[in-house]
Amino acid sequence: MSKPAQVHTVLNRDSDEVRVPSPFGVPLLTYLNRKGLRGTLSSDRAGDVIVLDGEPDMGRVRMYLDDWERAATTADESAGPTKPAPGEGLGGASAAGNELPADFPRPGTPEWRAMNARRGVLIRRDLAGKATDAERAELEQLERFSDLSLARWGLGGGAEG
């Protein structure tokens, strides 16, 4: 069994910033929002940065970050397939509606990062007005499955309904 991926946050108390590896910025900000903290998210080459609004109690922020890191690490320890077999689409016929395919990648894995890179390509093509109907359908499916996967592993997100 391979060692689980570690998710480490870095809290800069002077600038009220939290740095986390991509793609964990969105689920972490969602989690912090549920805890009553607000902020804005940006990304750079080193990862995602959340700038917290107001003057939050940094002890409370650190406690929430520690809880979130434990939950993210525990989710990565779960066994199970994370990558579709060659030639298989994401989900196939069983992925209708809000059902997450068993072979959809877990957040924090290399397969998740590859899927997220594909989402980025599709988003850029869509924003540029160059996406085909098939690419827009693929993007919609990846968005839905990503939300469901984040919710499954307790990292925020979830299907809207």
Strand arrangement across the biggest beta sheet: 1-2-4-3
Specify the structural class. Answer: alpha+beta
What is the CA-based Rg, rounded?
A: 17 Å
Q: Report the uncertain regions.
A: 76-96, 157-161
* Helical coverage, percent range: 40-55%
Rough outline: globular
Task: Quickly count the domains.
Answer: 2
| Biggest sheet architecture | 4 strands, antiparallel
Strand content: 5-15%
Quantity of strands, as a count: 4
- Taken in chain order, the helices and strands follow as EEHEEHHH
Calculate the mean pLDDT score and round it.
Answer: 74
Distance from N terminus to C terminus (CA atoms, Å) equals 36 Å
Number of helices: 4
Describe the structure concisely.
By secondary structure, the protein is α+β, with helices and mostly antiparallel strands. The protein has helices at residues 25-34, 58-77, 110-127, 133-152, and strands spanning 10-12, 17-20, 39-44, 47-52.
What's the SSE blueprint?
Elements: E1 10-12, E2 17-20, H1 25-34, E3 39-44, E4 47-52, H2 58-77, H3 110-127, H4 133-152
Antiparallel strand pairs: 1-2, 2-4, 3-4
Helix pairs in contact: 3-4
